[in-house]
Write a structure and sequence with these properties.
The protein is an alpha/beta fold. It has helices spanning about 10-20, 40, 55-65, 75-95, 125-140, 205-210, 240-245, 275-290, 305-310, 310-320, 375-395, 420-430, 435-450, 455-475; strands at about 1-10, 25-30, 45-50, 100, 105, 105-110, 120, 145, 150-155, 160-165, 175-185, 215, 220-230, 250, 295-300, 330-340, 340-345, 355-360, 365, 405, 500-505. Among the domains are: about 1-185 and about 340-395, FAD/NAD(P)-binding domain (3-Layer(bba) Sandwich), CATH 3.50.50.60; about 225-335, Flavocytochrome C3, Chain A, domain 1 (Alpha-Beta Complex), CATH 3.90.700.
């Protein structure tokens, strides 16, 4: 099967890219699960853009840089915030039903934002609303969709990506050939025991690009969302940061010394609206002090009708488990949420391999630095998906590797025995808090695992082990704490480490 564009992944990044690419030739979307299944679907908070009165792209830029802990690419951030209002207009034209108040777009505030600039749809169902619209638009545009197809390899010829090999729903090998391939495979939250990500978020795109010889960057920076529901026996479920934007307070658990105490003012001047890395570590610290597996997120002081209307998804989900957040605080704990690292791209979505572009969570564009600012993720997808398609139409050369790129030879290909084993290892040794011995043990354990088995799950476990190994490698080398990467043996940031770690495989397949 031959295409002008092959899009891997069906979140907002992939579907928006496909919609644009379809204007220029035969386009196909290949995705591992159902077309609707992606991190986008579960995004609650919204999408950030300086579109409200009193806001500005300069303020949005400054907030993004501050959250990124010194590692944002200022030029990439400029692109993000400058093009944000136009992308919001385009999403509105496509039919995304952003919420409004008295005829004006409704704007919320989240952690580390100095203004209310978060657009939302359906209250806390923004991602689902966007995904629904994009799936419909892609089908209307005549894009061919191959869901439940697991990509196993990027095909190359003379160093150029020419398509992919995949397994169809029956396990039969399929070859897709394409002039241009766009990676939009999403994140890697499934590498950890507790995660807000769905089962398809296993880091496949990073693994595929690495094996083909693309540069990867910032692999040590994994963002843990501070507030995931922590009810015994209940699946991990995100409680959006927008709750704290509307006044929710983090408190110590009942029964602990000083139970019910608001603790975030002790950790950061912004209190409950501090950057996510600060809040996640503060919660972890309070959990250790109390011996509890959670803290409390309290919004019982707010108007119950407003909370039920503003956060219908969260409210109704909690009610299923006999928890009414308008009457009782919710038990919460951190969970793996977003991957700041990924396949290196320039400001036009170009990777270091000809014919291969990347956008969305799989890409390392430089806009997030060491710690992503809340609700910049959905924005990044549409800004750089459009740029990737534009660059591909110009026939641009691939991105030059970053000057600090290091060849990295890893041991033979291995795969975890099962997901739970890998998740437990990375959660304990390469999670919110890291140390040299734990990282060394994790590397040795992964290197000792066996070869991958056949089939989709075998390929997935091999991808997960590889991405986990890259995270451990980068976390071992960065001997400081910065943003989402925290080393207990080096708890302060080191000015000498205000730089990126970029790796490339010396012997691509």
């Amino acid at each position: 099967m031959n295409y002008d564009y092959l899009i891997l992944g069906s979140g907002i990044a992939g579907l928006y890219a496909a919609l644009l690419a379809a204007q220029h030739g035969r386009t196909a979307v290949v995705t591992k699960g159902p077309i609707e299944e992606s991190n986008t679907k579960y995004a609650q908070g919204g999408i950030a853009a300086a579109v409200g009165p009193g806001d500005s792209v300069t303020a949005h830029r400054n907030d993004t840089l501050a959250a990124g802990a010194g590692l944002c690419d200022p030029a990439a951030v400029d692109v993000l915030v400058r093009e944000a209002p136009d992308r919001i207009r385009r999403l509105t034209e496509l039919g995304v039903p952003f919420d409004s108040e008295e005829g004006q777009v409704a704007l919320g505030r989240e952690g580390a934002h100095s203004r209310a600039r978060i657009l939302h749809a359906g209250g806390d169902r923004t991602g689902d609303a966007i995904e629904t619209v994009m799936v419909r638009r892609v089908r209307e545009a005549g894009v061919e969709v191959f869901d439940r197809h697991a990509v196993t390899e990027l095909r190359t010829r003379d160093g150029r990506v020419t398509g992919v090999e995949a397994l169809d729903p029956t396990g039969r090998p399929v070859l897709f050939q394409a002039t241009r391939t766009i990676l939009a495979t999403g994140g890697a939250g499934q590498l950890y025991t507790l995660t807000t990500n769905p089962s398809v978020a296993t880091g496949d795109g990073v693994a595929l690009a690495w094996r083909a010889g693309a540069v990867v960057r910032d692999m040590e920076f994994v963002q843990f969302h501070p507030t995931a529901l922590a009810l015994p026996g209940v699946p991990t479920f995100l409680l959006t940061e927008a709750l704290r934007g509307e006044g929710a307070i983090l408190r110590t658990p009942a029964g602990a010394g000083g139970g019910g105490r608001a603790f975030m003012p002790n950790y950061h001047p912004l209190g409950d609206l501090a950057p996510r890395d600060v809040v996640a570590r503060a919660i972890a610290t309070e959990m250790r002090r109390s011996g509890s597996d959670h803290v409390l997120l309290d919004i019982t002081h707010a108007d119950p009708d407003f909370i039920a209307a503003r956060f219908p998804g969260v409210h109704q989900h909690c009610l299923r488990y006999e928890l009414d957040i308008t009457r009782a605080p919710a038990p919460v704990a951190p969970a793996a949420h977003y991957f700041m690292g990924g396949v290196y791209t320039d400001h036009w979505g170009r990777t270091t391999l000809p014919g291969l572009y990347a956008c969305g969570e799989v890409a390392s564009t430089g806009v997030h630095g060491a710690n992503r600012l809340a609700s910049n993720s959905l924005l990044e997808t549409v800004v750089f998906a459009q740029r990737a398609v534009e660059a591909s139409q110009r026939g641009d050369a691939p991105a030059a590797p970053p000057p600090d790129t290091t060849p990295l030879a890893l041991p033979r290909l291995t795969a975890a025995p099962d997901r739970a084993t890998l998740q437990s290892l990375l959660w304990s040794q390469a999670g919110i808090v890291r140390d040299p011995q734990g990282l060394a043990d994790a590397a040795a354990t992964i290197d000792a695992w066996g070869a991958p088995s056949a089939g989709v799950e075998g390929a997935t476990l091999a991808n997960m082990a590889l991405v986990g190994r890259l995270i451990v490698q980068a976390a071992s080398r960065r001997t400081e704490s910065r943003g989402a990467h925290y080393r207990s043996d080096a708890p302060e940031s080191d000015p000498n480490w205000r730089r990126h770690l970029s790796f490339v495989r010396p012997d691509p397949q």
